[in-house]
């Protein structure tokens, strides 16, 4: 018998967090014994919303009592205030902030759930609270890049600065690069396909995360697209970033980052070394690996839930 896995989202704009939930939605759809269904809130928008292409999987209302199991991420918990006895919950945890005292997400760690963390850093963070109820698994976040993007031609020494999360810092870096022939600064979200295209065309990618992230996917995407990557440490990139080997990891300040960029501009051999090692590293973070790990969890969900 096919079992229903119920998702919930308030989709106000495309974010990496929504993208990863969508990956898991597709993973569930690919399992022969499960059918993924999602309820989108009335406030959800259509632009860049990937679920709207799967209308047969849209639920008009959120009815957790009718599903075999629930998939919850972030503040989805607010729509499920009371536990239903015997109803398995899979909780995707995507950020170290779940462990931060006073953060609204922390209160949900004591709700029974089978938790999937997108990095070991996230798992370590929530474990440190000693209030997690249920087993915790690490499934490192996988890449999802359209093969058509990888065919774009790079311009030698071109620089792309992703400053969506750090616009002031990004502008300071761009100003410091005045006179450099090809610098592209991004301070606002754009459609994902456009974002990946700009990454793919860059020779050097400068990614500016928050100081603490769960799994910082843009830098790994840049590596997969053959960029020489500059990205400060943000906790969530430690699963793949190796300073001096596949990325440069200066401190999160304009002067340090400008020095790292200058180092790469002056040394094409180092750019090529980072590029080669970065592509090799990114090859381990595949959708196939992520899907296989999730399917194993789905197949063991009853015994996992009974252990809580």
Automatic annotation (TrEMBL):
GO molecular function list: glycosyltransferase activity
Name of the molecule in the record: Glycosyl transferase family 1 domain-containing protein
Superkingdom: Bacteria
Keyword Transferase among UniProt keywords: yes
UniProt cross-references to Gene3D superfamilies, sorted A to Z: Glycogen Phosphorylase B
InterPro entries: Glyco_trans_1
Pfam families assigned: Glycos_transf_1 (PF00534)
UniProtKB keywords: Transferase
Residue ranges occupied by any Glycosyl transferase family domain in the UniProt entry: 186-278
Any one GO biological process: lipopolysaccharide biosynthetic process
Species per Swiss-Prot/TrEMBL record: Luteimonas chenhongjianii
UniProt KW Magnesium keyword: no
